[in-house]
Design goal:
By secondary structure, the protein is mainly α. The protein has one domain. Helix content is about 90%, strand content about 0%.
Length: about 35
């Protein structure tokens, strides 16, 4: 695997992680706003 593929894989992974964190934050905000 060359470095360009490595970089793209890392970027994809980062985007997925970021989306997951944002989703969790949204869920957390919903829960706290309901109380």
């Amino acid at each position: 695997m060359n470095w360009k593929q490595n970089c793209l894989t890392f970027i994809d992974y980062f985007k997925i992680m970021k989306k997951d964190v944002i989703d969790k934050l949204d869920i957390y905000k919903l829960k706290t706003s309901e109380e």
